[in-house]
Amino acid sequence: QVQLVESGGGLVQAGGSLRLSCAASGRTFSSYAMGWFRRAPGKEREFVAAISRTGARTYYADSVKGRFTISKDNAENTVYLQMNSLKPEDTAVYYCAASKTSEPYFGASGRYRLVYVYDYWGPGTQVTVSS
Fold first, then answer.
1. Maximum Cα–Cα distance across the chain
2. Number of continuous H segments (helices) and E segments (strands) in the chain
3. Taking Cα atoms as reference points, which of 86, 91, 84, 114 lies closest to residue 40?
């Protein structure tokens, strides 16, 4: 089993940057693909970014492409989400998640976007972007 804890959220002005971290427990972190999702008030949880087990492949939602970068440090059992050029519409609770699904299945047909593909979830961290 994997336990995930996010950190790095906070309040930032539009145009600013934040880096979210997600620390994972357990010795098998390298066996998991990882994803970031977010839920804005009154909206469904939506996919933000994902990364394969080895970090060789990354995937992004169109709304964050070019602004956000996901990375994975298997030695530190941590996945990061660097968020630049933040917009008020990025305001949400951000969740990291771990998936046992391996490539090519993880990347096939956009499976990485699906909530049910992920086996473990963190409690979330709030990101608020002021205009």
1. 41
2. 0, 11
3. 91
Token pair in block for residue 87: 């917009």
Q: Which residue has the tokens 């970090």?
A: 55
Per-residue pLDDT tens digits of the chain, which is 131 residues long: 899 999 999 999 999 999 999 999 977 888 999 999 999 999 999 999 999 999 999 999 999 999 999 999 989 999 999 999 999 999 999 999 999 988 888 988 899 999 999 999 999 999 999 99
End-to-end CA distance of the chain: 40
Pairing of strands 4-7, 92-99: unpaired
Counting Cβ atoms within 10 Å, is residue 17 exposed (0-12), middle (13-18) or buried (19+)? exposed
Cα–Cα distance for residue pair 69/21, rounded to 1 Å: 12
- Radius of gyration for the alpha carbons in the chain, expressed in angstroms and rounded: 14
Q: Are 85 and 33 in contact (CB under 8 A)?
A: no
> Residues near 108 by Cβ (< 8 Å), separated by ≥ 6?
none
* Cβ neighbours for 39, distance < 8 A, ≥ 6 positions apart: 45, 46, 92, 93, 95, 124
